[in-house]
Amino acid sequence: MDEKQKEQFIKLTNFLGQVLGKQYEVVFHVLSKEGAYIAAIANSHVSGRTLESPLSAFASELVQNKAYLKEDFLCDYKALAGKSKLIRGSTFFIKNHDKLVGILCINHDTSIMRDLICKMIDLEKIGDMGEILGNISFSQNDSSIETLSHSIEDILVQSVDSSYLNSDYQLSITQKEEIAEKLYEKGIFNIKGAVPIVAKFLKISEPSVYRYLKKFKK
Predict the structure, then answer these.
(1) With 90 as the cut, is the pLDDT of residue 5 above it?
(2) Distance CA 215, CA 201 (A)
(3) pLDDT for 130-157, tens place per residue?
(4) Where are the domains of the chain?
(5) In this predicted structure, which of 37-41, 55-59, 81-85, 173-177 has the lowest mean pLDDT?
(6) Which long-range contacts (CB under 8 A, 24 or more apart) does 19-27 make?
(7) What stretches pass through the bilayer (predicted)?
(8) Residues near 163 by Cβ (< 8 Å), separated by ≥ 6?
(9) Which of 38, 46, 57, 188 is deepest in the core (most CB within 10 A)?
């Protein structure tokens, strides 16, 4: 993506943020040679993310699996901000021919609307809230739900066995490679800045991570 195209999507992000209103977060990710990063974000209070936040694990996996070759966009999927805020997400793939160069995401905070409906249901004693609204119980461990993470470290917590996160746990060489391969398959290395953080977590050098990546790509 050249600078002119990037600038147009930054303007579009801010425009959509104002038009849609404060319950809609609009996020523009650029996919560069160094990895994906947020170039613009409007109404960031919805998820609490910043320009320094990473591409979500869900979106990283879409990139890794080349979902953009089959679809131009995805609409109305479940997402979670923090531990309990319910979000409806949509993603538009920005492509130059078949090359993915960016992602535009719109996240709708439905929590206020749901709270209001719940209060109305309770006030009028209409019936069971679950039957009317459907199953609204979200879990961060549900792989079908996008979690809007604030850092790459947060994504590692989602992606790696919790026992490995103990600083006293000594990973074997085989375990380190298996974890790196799992992160590769999930598209974590599509995120800008992922390599040094993964290297620190695995207690290996950055060149070692790049050697793993070269092996996985074969």
Answers:
(1) yes
(2) 20
(3) 554 555 455 445 555 777 788 888 888 7
(4) 3-112+139-148, 152-217
(5) 81-85
(6) 20/106, 22/46, 23/108, 23/109, 23/110, 23/112, 24/106, 24/107, 24/108, 24/109, 25/49, 25/105, 25/106, 25/107, 25/109, 26/104, 26/105, 26/106, 26/107, 27/104, 27/105, 27/106, 27/107
(7) none
(8) 169
(9) 188
Confidence class for position 127, pLDDT limits 50, 70, 90: low
Rounded to an integer, what distance in angstroms lies between the CA atom of residue 59 and that of residue 50? Answer: 16
pTM for this predicted structure: 0.77
Classify burial at 149, counting beta carbons within 10 Å of its beta carbon; exposed 0-12, middle 13-18, buried 19 or more: buried
Q: Which of 25, 31, 34, 24 lies closest to 5, judged by CA?
A: 31
Residue 154 has φ and ψ, to the nearest 5°, of -60, -40
Distance of alpha carbon 149 from the chain centroid: 6
Q: What is the dihedral of CA 154, 155, 161, 163, to 10 degrees?
A: -20
Orientation angle between helical segments 173-185 and 206-217, nearest 10 degrees: 60
Instruction: State the Cα–Cα distance between residues 157 and 83, nearest whole angstrom.
Output: 14
- Rg of the chain over Cα atoms, rounded to whole angstroms, equals 19
